[in-house]
Every structure is written in structure tokens, then in C-alpha cells.
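Researcher: Good morning. I'm working through a list of sequences from a screen, and I'd like to move beyond sequence-only analysis. For each chain I'm collecting a predicted structure so we can compare shapes side by side. This is the next one on the list. No need for commentary yet; just the structure.
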Amino acid sequence: MISRPALLQPHVRDELTSYLSELEADDPRALWHDERQRGLVSGVDQVFHFFFDDHDFDNSAVGYSLFDQVEVGSIEAVKARLEAILDVVGDADDDDFVSHPLWAEVRRAAAVASSRLKEAA
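Model: Good morning. C-alpha cells for this chain:
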């Protein structure tokens, strides 16, 4: 493991790790349902807000929530897969996203990104 300097926003990285874990799950709808039962806002809409509205996860995130360009690229891959499915299903609900054949690509990209973030931890 490489010794790395501390990130300025490790809480964002922690949240990112949680979102990636949801996306790589066999069926995140069960996780999202459980979170909603506990009064949390959860689901595919929150995923999109996190990845596209709340954070950029581009080169500007290096040193803040990501360690390097490899991590940036892995998150960009997740975002690209999410955008691809959004282009097909549009403003739809959790079921429409998760049951779509392109969701497998989201899961794979999230698993790769999750693995890369864990390697650097």
C-alpha cells in the first residue's frame, strides 16, 4: 500500500464508497427501501444528485476526495454508465433503472471503482 497524504474531504470519499457499494449490489432497491423505511432519502434520484449535482469527481477532486487520476477515471466510468442508462429510460423510477439491461454495466463500473478506492485506502 502506498502512503498517501490525508484528503481534505474524507467524508465525501466515505459517502462515495457507500454509493458505489449500493450500485454494485445485486439489487440496490432493497437497500434503498430499507433506507427509506428509516426516514432517509434514498434511491436512484439520490445517486444522480450525488454524482452529478453535488460533486464533480473530476481532476479538481484530487486531494479532496480522490487520490489520483486513476480514481477520477474509475468514477468517470460510473458516471458514463449512469448517463447512458438515463438517456434510455429518462426520468424514471428505481425499478426502471435497475431492471434495465444497461444496469449490469453500472454494476460492473461501480465494482471496479469501489475496488480502486479500497486499494488506495
